[in-house]
Structures
1.
Amino acid sequence: MMGRTIFIDPGRCIGCQACVSACRECDSHRGKSMIHLDYTEPGMSVASLPTVCMHCEDPVAPCAEVCPADAILVTADGVVQQADTTRCIGCANCVNACPFGVPKIDLQAKLQMKCNLCYDRTAYGLAPMCATVCPTGALFYGTLEELQAERPGVQVADSFAFGDVMVSTGVAMVVPADKVQWPVPGGLPVVEVNGVDVR
Amino acid sequence: MTATDPVKAVSLPVPVSIDPSIAPPGTRNFRDAGGIPADQWHADQNGETLVPTHCCFCGVQCGMYLRVDKHGKVFGVEPRNHDINRMRLCPKGINAYQQVNHPDRLTAPLMRRSRDEEFKEASWEEALDFTVSEIRRIQQAYGNDAFGLLGGASLFSEKTYLVGKFARVALKTKHVDYNGRLCMVSAAGANKLAFGIDRAGNPFSDILLTDCLLIAGSNVGECFPVMTQYLWGARDRGASLIVIDPRETAIARTADIHVALKPGTDAAFFNAVLHVIVAEGLTDETYLAAHTTGWEEVKQTVAAYPPARSAEICGIPAEQIVQVARVFAAADKAMAWHARGIEHHSQGVENCLTVINLCVATGNIGKPGAGYGTITGQGNGQGGREHGQKSDLLPGGRSISNPEHRAQICRIWGIEESELPGAGTSMMEMVWQMQRREIRGLIGICNNPFVSLPNYAVVKDGYDTAEFHAQFDFFLSETAANAHVVFPVTTWAEDEGVMANAEARVVKHNKAQEPPAGVRTDTWVICELARRLGAGHHFDFPGSREVFEELRVASAGTVNDYYGITYERLEETGGIAWPCPSTEHPGTPRLFEDGRTCHPDGKIHMQVVEWHPPMDAYTEEYPLSLTTGRTVAHFLSGNQTRRLGALVEQTPRPWVEVHPSHGFRNGDPVRVVTRRGSEVFPALVTEAIRPDTVFIPYHWPVPTAANALTIDALDPRSKIPEYKVCAARVEAADRIDEVPAPPTAPGQEAYPEAQVSRTDPLPPTSPQGRGTAERS
């Protein structure tokens, strides 16, 4: 099961963008945020949702799989790193491959940048900057046991259905208890493929 | 070792992965703290140090470290595991450090002899001499009270003490007030009437213990984001959440009950809730009999507010009133926290009293998890009025009208009682007096009334009428741009001092860097002006520490007792709540645990409140309620945050929030008209607001200033302006280019991607998600 990772809880997000500002402070990409803040029901509600790199595990990081320059490395502990500056050619294959829309391309520098789970901090026992500052705990860093100890009864999912494609991730999402039995729909609202319920 | 507080009743939701020993107070860098190998932390190799301090913005006062490079310059922020915030920070806190070495910083005094001239840089000698000569000229010609002083609640308490003393002892004027007058004075007035003490009853940590949390008029998610960790902690333990707000805010969205009442109807609502509690026999009669006065009168008054009547006044279903009453009264421990939403009214004090009546009638006072609190908007909104900066108060919260209190302070200050002026007027009233030429000269310290006071036309006229105006600031604010002299002073990171947060917990800010050349501390400037006015012997203060020592003595024996608080204790403990009468005393985080209030009889004095409508009448011409508030990215008048690229990118400009029933589309230019004027804003069309209400955030100056439209009606007791409700109408504006671009700010260059388009006439992103999201 998952080790120490980020858990995203959209129910707690207040849209304050502290995570976005905090991400800018990270030493590995100072001045640029690698977090997207999405609004789920514009005009209807203030509901919002932070998106960080999901650090895909199965299939192994689509961004890394499609990289023609082998610039995106995955560490032994499952962190999908941002592009190696000495290898990246800025082709944006990773941008197209990512099912979550995470990587960004700096066109001038011809360089892909994305969340690397604050490797410079997590490697030394600190939480990523975004999860450290998140005022509400919408971004939580720790183990599942630690999360559940703090929030009794909380349920998480770490697999997502994009049509008939399943993606398992290192980062997990807090979901309502009745939704945890099947993967969280990530892309098109397809539940059946060739007559088979893919949930 | 952790940043501990003497009150640590419960464990907060700490990010458990973080070793709390990583950066205790006094730690100079990560290597000293342990856990990070010195040779692998590149920032440390570069000679970085971490200075423990607190955020300069709101009343939560989150602990943070400022990162200081080997040249002694602040260059970043690092979360700090302080008891208040446990590492958490909001976007303002994260970006606050960028002001310290911002290119807009004023580094030389600016001076001009008339408003027709351009500012020129002047020497400190010239600027001080000119200011003193103008003070003398005005006071000799028109009397001492013709000169006024306006302080600020973002100043350290030492400086607010100095402002009050300087006004009374050096300027010898009664006209001193501060911008906390625009913040929580209604709550302060209510608390004093009911309990005899002006502060929240409980620490934030009590929220974690409550069974029912009622939040009235507070957009916690945007105004006090870090407080939501306590709220969610309570929710995790099963507490109910009731939110009273005309808008469906991020907190209201997740509440058990969200009451979207019409602005300005709070007293009618709370009276009706109490009506139901009485009718259903849910009051705590034993508690009421033992600890209160005035209950019978209150009970009779609320009898006239059945749910049906209040529901009509408030524009909500009567069932909601019954529901709130039952949930609140059924809870074993219930708490109510409120903020400007119920305080910024012409009956702000009374609104707060109705909330207090609710807590008292159900016996929810003075217990862990049960009580009341007000959330201060400004960093030192609480401490800023405790030591004599407010027009009617002397240090220690003493009354300037009380002969005994006057004599005590005169003894400490070494002046004759006959020399001490009486009570002055409030901030808005001082502006009216400037219009009437009763006040002809003014010094402003750390405030920006051109954006923050209501009815901008009146404010501008008042300041323009003044013969002399000096301003202390570190950026050239809209108000400073009107001045004759602008003194460049330090930021919070360049001086030390204390602030009291919303819990009345006194925390210490530490100096992280030397001020830029040419910049002086407010303390130095005030003392230098006093010396030149011939009162130097009363102002022999080399720095904040010496002022604090006098402040401690001046507050000793009062309700606001700071005597037992020292800089050393604050550094060791991470904060002490007053009253703290001796250096052995642990402080008082929770009030009334012994069942006694600060009134001489030890009782809670319950107050009768009748609802009355807002001052600005609704008519066919002005049928809507205009209400104002904050957005998470900006702070108060925006003088600080509108210069920080990341925050400007997050919320580049104001908007008007309207319900879809008005027929506008997102981004349409909409003219908002009130009896004070009209302005055009892009529409943010959302169902998260009442159809009869529109909302504008107030951080911007004209031509998109919410406060050009709001009314300068005041609460008769607290003299707080009625920002939160005035009559308005909306209409389609003719042209899209009537929506002006946001003002430029050089600080935006700090981050290349933080540039905002100057030509885009519509809001590119939706603040708080009520529009189209845009990925950067």
2.
Amino acid sequence: MPDTTRSAHGAPTPADRGLPTVDISGWTCPTPVRDQPRVVMGHGGGGALSAELVQQIFAPAFGGEILAQLGDSAAVSLGGVRLAFSTDSYVVRPLFFPGGCIGDLAVNGTVNDLAMSGARAAYLSCGFILEEGVEMPVVAGVADAMGVAARAAGVEVATGDTKVVEAGHGDGVYLNTAGIGLIPAGVDLRPQRVVPGDVVIVSGDIGLHGVAIMSVREGLEFGVEIESDCAALGGLVETMLAVTPDLHVLRDPTRGGLAAALCEIATASCTGIVIEERAVPVPSAVANACAILGLDPMYVANEGKLVAFVPRAHADAVLDAMRAHPLGAGAAVIGETVETHPGMVVARTPLGGTRVVDLPLGEQLPRIC
Amino acid sequence: MKYLDEFQDPQLARRLLDEIRATVTRPWALMEVCGGQTHTIIRHGIDQLLPDNVELIHGPGCPVCVTPLEVIDKALEIASRPDVIFCSFGDMLRVPGSDRDLFQVRSHGGDVRVVYSPLDALKIAQQNPHREVVFFGIGFETTAPPNAMTVHQARKLGIPNFSLLVSHVRVPPAIEAIMTSPSCRVQAFLAAGHVCSVMGTQEYPELAERFRVPIVVTGFEPLDILEGIRRTVRQLERGEHTVDNAYPRAVRPEGNPAAQAMLADVFEVTDRAWRGIGTIAASGWRLSERYRAYDAEYRFSVDGITTREPAACRSGEVLQGLIKPHECEAFGATCTPRSPLGATMVSSEGACAAYYLYRRLGTPSTPQEASPVA
């Protein structure tokens, strides 16, 4: 038991004044609950909870070797042809937001997942889950947007399905898209190919989509309208592969943002990643919005960006090619892979310090103060 | 928000760091009171850039962490009721009670909503007259005035279905508790600028004098923190112990009288339990008698709460600088970033996680300059 009769400074203690003494030597902080008996929103946040859900429930249940690689899309061989195959579901609210809508998102998201395998998307499927009562013009608006996005991406929506759920059991429109595309010969994009010395390139400003959605969903105003960066990246990836097919890995940093994508690659490749924070392109509107809400732009979702791990010998040429493409005009080298701290991402701060960039547990939450 | 860049300028930061290095002649232990300051310090790696003999001890100023378990359990109980819409700031949803958190309440069908202002919760109450709307009012002197104003508005507008679950805490009694603790190593304080922007600086001279510690009111951007440290160290080296305002762009000595008047009208000072610390006399606020009808604890008669604190780690001692992370028996064994026992290992900003990631691997805490990239 500590001696509570005299403070370390010889000053009168609370006990002298008739108050209980607090012993601060036992201070502890509460730890977030990890063992969730039911699904919580964090399981869909692209962080550690999402990864645990897949690794502990889905992967063991399905048991496939391809699934176990946990890529954004699967690289499969069929009749001697290498295909990329991917699916994604879209539950965004509101359905229409600055810079796009759920329809664009559903096309571009799956096109981009395929592009991260090096594949040009060829065919998509589309599943509509409609809520009873949603207005027909809304459904038509979403469908039209999908058509426009598909044509722009050079992909055909070849098959689809529609279901309706009772009023109150959905947010108007949920979508699922799946897609296939051919992986060009000589292209092998996997985290396992990353080696120390690779250069890390991001294709442009980060955080736009997440902040755009937040601003309309929560009615927050940041002084300037921020638009989603929703875009199909197939063309940009083709441009990069034209410089060299020897890119090591590509990721589109959607849920969980750039940080989650980097952490996943660091873990899967068993290499360390060092990021120069000042080099990461964060538009001032995003930085300001994140500062107000206590969020980190590195964890905010993107829908039209990619991060590339490129052999150092090709980095300059790939960067130049990216900057010559409209969707890569803001491309920047943000760091490199290293032998030290394998599996971990470290950011060097503008002041010269360092911090660890971790996989978020679930979704980022606005801080109290 | 043009100040963001100006207050993160690396060249100015280097000048301040040089001045701090030139000033310090012996070891000093400073406590930054506020969790927001801790966040900036870790986010920008400021702790690694300081000279070795300037130690920062992270204070108890994280409102999320210090909200007592009993209040969290009451929140969980109230939020579970079918007639309630429970509104909270985002980061409270992840704070564990005895056996669950607000996310789990939501997954069981509870109507738990994240809001960005207590006034949003009041609006929800107006829009849902047949349901009880409860706002989780936690935090220091910074968040207390808007919560007070919201209750004041609810009463003024006659909105009967709104109430506040209150667990507000005050900084000065916490400083007193820290300074009178037998294990105290703190020699100076960086006071929380946002708190002082409300309360002013009048509460601090008595504490500085009684405990002979410098108290420097400090802001939250990197240069604010460094300037606060510079002024604190200068006082320590000179043997001074005064209250100094290093955040004059936001803090006036008298604070915000309108906010103080609102606090005095709506709240009354009470003893308050701090999670992981214990009860500190006169360290909190509760709704005053005039506003008792808006107190969720009374309205919902949440009695018979039996709390059960999960097994503790030694993060408290780490936070005070009493032990280094690797001196904890659980470090790296039963406690890792993947299976943390305490907040210092949960967050990448935590001392234990930083030690785990760097020291465990035998790499220096400040990595070598990597080769320049294009």
